[in-house]
Amino acid sequence: MKNAVDWFWQSIDNLPATSPVTIKRLRSVGVETFSDLLNYAPIRYSDFSQVVSIEKLAVGQKVSVIGEVVDLRQERTRKGFTIQKVVVTDTTGELTLVWFNQSYLLRTIKKGQIISASGEVKAYLFDRSMFVEEFELVDKTKYERFLNGHQADFIHTQRIIPYYSEKKGLSSRVIREKIFYLLTQFDPEFESLPEEILKQNKLASLYQSYSNIHFPENSRLYKLARDRLAFDEIFVLSLAGEIYRKNWQNEKKPYKFILSDQIKHKLTELIASLPFQLTSSQHKAVEAVIADMQKDTAMNRFLQGDVGSGKTIVAVISSYFAYLNGCQTLVMAPTEVLAVQHFKSFQAFLKNFSVKIALQTGSIKTIKDYNKKIADYDIIIGTHALFNEKLKYDKVGLVVIDEQQRFGVMQRALLRSKGINPHLLTMTATPIPRTVTLVLFGELNLSILDKPPSGRKPVKTYFVPLEKRQSAYDWIKKRLKKKEQVFIVCPLIEDSDHETLVNVRSAIAEYEKIKQIFSEYKVGLLHGRMKSKEKQQILADFKDHKFDILVSTPVIEVGIDIPNATVIVIEGAERYGLSQLHQLRGRVGRSDRQSYCLVFTESKSSDAVSRLKYFAKENNGFKLSEYDLKMRGPGEVFGIRQSGYLNVKFASLLDLNLIEKASKAVLDFIENCKLEEFPILKKLVSYYDSKLISRD
Questions:
Q1: Strand locations in 325-365, DSSP E?
Q2: pLDDT per residue over 555-581, tens digit each?
Q3: Radius of gyration of the chain from Cα atoms?
Q4: Cα–Cα–Cα angle for 71, 73, 77, rounded to 5 degrees
Q5: How far is the C-alpha of 342 from the C-alpha of 312, rounded, in Å?
Q6: Structural domains of the chain sorted by starting position, each given as residue range(s) with its CATH number in brackets
Q7: Tens digits of per-residue pLDDT, 435-474?
Q8: Could you tell me the strand order of the sheet in which 423-428 lies?
Q9: DSSP 8-state code for residue 458
């Protein structure tokens, strides 16, 4: 078995008869090993398994034929195209095979050779011809076996044929040949999972699964193959998460937090001082966090809340609890804009509670004397600047990480290396489907804020067709007359000459247009190339109503709280995933006033229009993310980093039944098996564990 494991992870450099160019192309799409190549999933199939003699061919059939080449020629059309024609014969008749603009075939195919071809039979110039999709030349031995009724190993014809993503110059034909070779070398006894798990879940063998996912004999065997490989993916992801959870629990103990009567009283005072009442889900989240922080193992809790659900106040109360226990809190945000927003929010909520708060970003540094002043602060809010080697922490009890795990295990390891094992609270406003949460965050405890603060009204959203743009501007002027404010969001900073972007509106160009259209109002401009102080000043001016309209790039996606902004216009809306549109929509509706979101697109794609119309009628972020996941894939929902972790090729992340089966199998495996006895599984877990660690 060890040899089989070694073979499975061999470098593609060991593929025979493979040019350096092909090796380079395979590597460019992430194929490094035999395992990677076997897991390069087909994107579609064509069924050419029906082999028909020439005399029985009928127009419209998609079939395979086999015969001897008796003639070949090339013709040129008036428009300069070339047509390649190869005449073949079998014992029943003669047929012309047709290709277009493939002159190399006349150097590849010779008279007297045996050719197997697959394609559609069409009426062509008063006769039947086959417009060829696939072909292969057949040696005499294979042909004789075929004539005698024996199964021959055809690769490109006479079977259900797989087609692959043809990126970086790769062709399905080349990929098919390489995978076919690997399957001839695959040990049928080679397995990754225990036999008991295979039996309990009625799973096909690994060899059968790879064979039938690439070259399925029929639809039933294809489904069994996909079920098995999908199960493996979810099983390995869940196992990696479960191992990570156990390792977390076995780490050295964190600071011991207590909830004395005095501390409980002070927490009650803070909650009573808030300008709003906590929702029931906020209360539950706070209770769960405080309970976790009193345990002997470090908290690892994931706080998931829809836009505007009030995650920040949960972080504030948790940080105050750490302060009351004599510990510092680090609050980390992915952008300076969001860090500054948190800094202002924490200051506002804790202004009467003697808590010292610092802000530490790339350009804004409250703490300048690293050796003396860091211990003076109870809560330190910032970006990656918090990990400056000059900052020597010695009493951090809680780390709060905001927005989609852009920090995580590696940063926490940096803190631990300084003698700290803090509790960890991770927050995100990106709604994540339940099934994905089970896979992606299986190693964390989960709290969900599913109710918005009282008094908030759902944002009314409208898909605005091109012909109604002027009417929309007239309507916006009515909102402006009521002293309300407006965001206008553009995908780009400047106009682009790239052919795919010529119709996409840019912030700078739109700013000039909006100043003319709304000439009686003050218009501001914000984009990511501005210096930090300039951005902060523009946002402060907008909040103080020195601007009526702010034209911006998606830099405002998170961390912007302008209660008087009641309208957001999103240009080029087809360029965003629905979850990102939902985030942008969350920049309005942050007061008790009715707010509106207008989505504009100049795309004529029916898919884009249907997505945006769905967005306009759906305010539930979780339903939007499930729709995006179903229609566009995990990369669109979670971004490049997360889709790298969610590197599933066969599984559906919406298949709750599969995920629950695989998760149960993981618990059985941990209880009854040793990972060391399953080398391929150990290797796969190690791979996905590295993905877990890279979530930073």
A1: 328-332, 357-360
A2: 776 657 788 999 999 998 988 888 788
A3: 31
A4: 150
A5: 8
A6: 1-43+165-190 (1.10.150), 46-163 (2.40.50.140), 261-293+310-428 (3.40.50.300), 460-618 (3.40.50.300)
A7: 666 665 665 677 888 777 776 788 999 999 988 999 999 9
A8: 357-360, 379-382, 328-332, 396-402, 423-428, 300-305, 445-449
A9: P
